[in-house]
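Lab notes, practical 5.
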Amino acid sequence: MIKAQIDDTELAAHLESIHKDEMTIFVMADNAFRGAFLNGTRLVNQMRANHNLGILETMILGQAMLSGALLIPTMKGREHLTFRYDVNGPAAGFSVEADSTGYVRGYLLQNKIPIEKPLENWDLAPFLGDGTLSISRIGEGMKEAQTGTVEIMYKNIAKDLAWYFAQSEQIHTAFNTSIQFDNQGRVVGAGGMFLQHIPEHGGYAKKNTKFQNDDALIQRAENAFSAMPSIGKWFSEGGNMRDVIYGLFREFEPNAILSRDIVFDCPCSQETFTNHVKHLPKAEIDDIIKNDPDPLEIICHNCGSRYLIPKKTLL
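Output from the prediction step:
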């Protein structure tokens, strides 16, 4: 991948001043819940620079990217997934890929998104509309991906992702993503949190009399999750990740077990695209050499990287 340069020196200085991007994975209530807290400020800024996105486009694809990253803790071993939204609204949807190695990439199905008037709030429902949400997973050794699909319920990316887990896997799950813009439209903070109940790790409620049963435990955890402050604002001000985890969920005895890097990245390369073109039918290659500009420009739709391929390399 070719990383686009962030030319705004003030924004670049801000990104250097705040905590690096990373995901902290935690468990709580004797492993009855697993969760992840993500600082994705640099991820969203790099995504925006590479795809050259406006504010609305950044908000939608940024939330999708953060959500895709938060799915990484649900992976088993070496796994790759695609999180896709197909809708009938002006945004048309998006496709985001996440890999267990920690990279996330993706693109909007419609860029630029047509709007009839200036944005008045961050309600994305009018731009998303009705449609479907799907997650496809392919693990090491699998020949075909396993895909689950649900109808969109809320026209809200985080809520619809939680709805997906409730419907397809019958697991209580919550997602929260947030992007903070400054008064010049720059992304100064971005992040998200994921929390999921693990049914096979029951028994915590029985040992704690303040919880009548597992349902009461889940409800209490959901209440704590919903009390979370604006994540984007928190990270824009240099907030600490563990302060939130151990403060928000203190009654559930949380334990942060792992921190890992999460980046906007793509395995594409000049060599990959050159080889792809070389393997086209000879008639197509001849047409490219005869009619297309030299060098040939190819843009990776997953990350926005632009590759210039000299025609002489195709001969």
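Observations recorded by the TA: Residues 55-70 form the longest helix (16 residues). The chain has eleven helices and 13 strands.
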